[in-house]
Amino acid sequence: MRDSSKDIPGRGPAPGGQEDVEELAHAADRLFYAMRRSRTATAGQSAVGLSMAQLALLVPLADDTRGEGLPVSRLAAGAEISVPTATRMLQQLEAKGVVTRRRSPHDERRVLVRLTEDGAARLEAMRGELRSRQFQALSHYTPGERRALAEQLHRLTDVIGGAAPGPERDR
């Protein structure tokens, strides 16, 4: 769909397909904000008691297969927040029984964080609620449309990830 309001008066469409790029960028922005609103609404309606910010901080802990805990700095980097902010959030989560924090036996300056059983259950419940909401939304597409959409979203993620500074993201 072409938005002629972006045309320069008397000159026609923007040169070099810029109009298509603008439309795609606008659609990507709308998708990003719609997903954020949906995730926030899910967290707000959930009985799990975790915010989206807390969820971002906790997700790497679910993958801590060795169970030794992960350093606060790594959790902060993964959630794209500062270490002091992560520390405050983790202190609150510890008070709620979601995580435990302890000094590293190898380096007393480092604090290692682990999920408690309750924390793991809460995290899994929240992930399930989010996945259910995604499934509902994506069920409006045919299997073929979902595969094509997934392929294009992976491609867009790779392109944006290559253009943006910072760590590379997994699919």
TrEMBL record:
Instruction: Note one Pfam family from the annotation.
Output: Staph_reg_Sar_Rot
Keyword DNA damage assigned to the entry: answer is: no
Q: HTH marR-type domain location, by residue? A: 21-158
Q: Name one GO molecular function term.
A: DNA binding
Q: Name the UniProt key words of this record, in alphabetical order.
A: DNA-binding, Transcription, Transcription regulation
Q: Does the keyword Cytoplasm apply?
A: no
GO term, biological process aspect, one: response to stress
Q: Where is this region: Disordered?
A: 1-20
Q: Which PANTHER family match?
A: TRANSCRIPTIONAL REGULATOR, MARR FAMILY, TRANSCRIPTIONAL REGULATORY PROTEIN
Name by which UniProt lists this protein: Helix-turn-helix, Fis-type
